[in-house]
Amino acid sequence: MRLRFPALLFLAFSLAACSTTTVYIVRHAEKVDETDSTDLSPAGKQRAIALADTLAKRGIDSIFTTPYRRTRQTAEPLAQRLSLQLVDYAPKLTSALVDRVNRIRTKTVLVVGHSNTVLDIARGLGASPTLRTIESGDFDNLFVLRIKRGLFGRTIDLSEKTYGQPTQP
């Protein structure tokens, strides 16, 4: 009888240590142009709606965006549907965001970043994206990371997808 309690305690601790966190990472949608890089274009607004349509039933718990209008506008349709507040992160300090996301357990989050930060965030979380860069005209990449933590460490599953309709040049 005495051995059962420690075994049950160990089992409970082991199960508590196991978790899966899902992280969706996207770049902000299309901006108006280089002279007005703050707002989304009409195509960008449609892509933001497409993102909301894509992720609305995925169990998103938190949405992280930079404080720039274009990232916030990309996430707002989903945030409104799910009644979630946007959480700002500093775009130049992706390591702080990575640390914060790494502390999240058994949740599903969306991160909206920029062409020069999305891949760094994915790599910082332990993924190995096949893309080396996100080109200036690429707005449809959707990186899905499943961070599985278990008794014997953690594994990262990465799925690289696209969403929304291609834009016309």
TrEMBL record:
<dbReference type="InterPro" id="IPR029033">
    <property type="entry name" value="His_PPase_superfam"/>
</dbReference>
<feature type="signal peptide">
    <location>
        <begin position="1"/>
        <end position="16"/>
    </location>
</feature>
<dbReference type="InterPro" id="IPR050275">
    <property type="entry name" value="PGM_Phosphatase"/>
</dbReference>
<dbReference type="InterPro" id="IPR013078">
    <property type="entry name" value="His_Pase_superF_clade-1"/>
</dbReference>
<dbReference type="Pfam" id="PF00300">
    <property type="entry name" value="His_Phos_1"/>
</dbReference>
<protein>
    <submittedName>
        <fullName>Broad specificity phosphatase PhoE</fullName>
    </submittedName>
</protein>
<keyword id="KW-0732">Signal</keyword>
